[in-house]
Amino acid sequence: MTVNPSEKEPVVITVAPNGARKTRKDHPKLPITPEQLAEEAFSCQQAGAAMIHLHVREEDDTHSLDTGRYRDAMAAIEDRCGENLLVQVTTEAVGRYTAKQQMAVVRELKPQSASLAIREIIPEDGEAEAKDFLHGIVRDGTLPHYILYDDKDLLRFQRLMEKDVIPEKNAFLLFVLGRYSEGQVSSPMDLLPFLNAMKSGFSWSVCAFGPLEHAAACAAVAMGGHVRVGFENNMYLSNGELAGGNSDLVAQIASAAESIGRPLAKARDIATVIGK
């Protein structure tokens, strides 16, 4: 098992405020419009978040990778938060976008960060194209956040890095707990297969589906990892009450991190904390 030995390293809290599928029927304060996202981003930054994982929607509230919609939301967040919150765009396919389309949106936007599911962005027959894409966006200054759904994804990630398909620079991993489990629920124990399979030297983070999100996040923080919380994965506080907003979930893990002894990273710290 490999964990980060530096327990005093600042913890990067990322907020995922809406996701690709949920609507205001799921929660009346789920942010969807640029204005709603900007206000939620500001509240979460004030509560301790250093980065926002951004999804945008079409007019009918369905998932979108439209660059114009991204630019509108990114501009609104920047106007509200300035440089105090790093913006990460998602490339999630949701069954409607190809790897080429996912790559195109990142190339066009050149965002501060982009989340990239290894299963989607690097198909078995697409390693050469993925290598050109990944090395290119890293050169352009985009921080890739590699999404891994199980330890098999992690083992493949490490093989792809050995082959130089994935660049070593700024390798930031996201272990997703519970996405493909029955009922989309998870446990802190689901983190163990990832840690057992991971080689040393990676910066890693966790997001967890279901009501044990906070427990899984606390486990990650205690083991030297970083965390992503928010309505995309869970809408409930650790006491079982419905969260009033994403900032409640951020504040909850921020308090836990500080009690463990890890300070909170600011947006300006991310390059130092994650960078290799």
Structural overview:
This protein is α/β, with parallel strands linked by helices and 276 residues long. The chain has a single domain, classed as Alpha-Beta Barrel (TIM Barrel). Helix content is 38%, strand content 16%. It has helices spanning 34-47, 67-81, 99-109, 118-121, 127-139, 151-162, 192-197, 213-222, 246-260, 270-274, and strands at 13-15, 51-54, 56-57, 63-64, 86-90, 113-117, 143-148, 172-177, 203-208, 226-229. Strands 1-2-5-6-7-8-9-10 form an eight-stranded parallel beta barrel, surrounded by six helices. Strands 3-4 form a two-stranded antiparallel sheet. The longest helix is centred in the first third of the chain and has 15 residues, at 67-81. The protein starts with 12 loop residues before the first strand and ends with a helix. 46% of the residues are buried.
In which order are the strands of the major sheet placed? 1-2-5-6-7-8-9-10
Gap from first CA to last CA: 21 Å
CATH topology, what is it called? Answer: TIM Barrel
Q: Could you list the spans in which at least 5 consecutive residues all have pLDDT below 50?
A: none
Report the sheet with the most strands, covering strand number, pairing sense and barrel closure: 8 strands, parallel, barrel
Helix content: 25-40%
CATH class: Alpha Beta
Counted beta strands: 10
User: How many separate structural domains?
Assistant: 1
Question: How much is the radius of gyration in Å?
Answer: 17 Å
Determine the CATH superfamily.
Aldolase class I
Average pLDDT rating? 95
Q: Strand percentage, roughly?
A: 15-25%
Helix/strand-derived category reads alpha/beta
Tell me the overall shape. globular
Number of helices: 10
- The CATH architecture name reads Alpha-Beta Barrel
Please write the string of helix (H) and strand (E) elements: EHEEEHEHEHHEHEHEHEHH
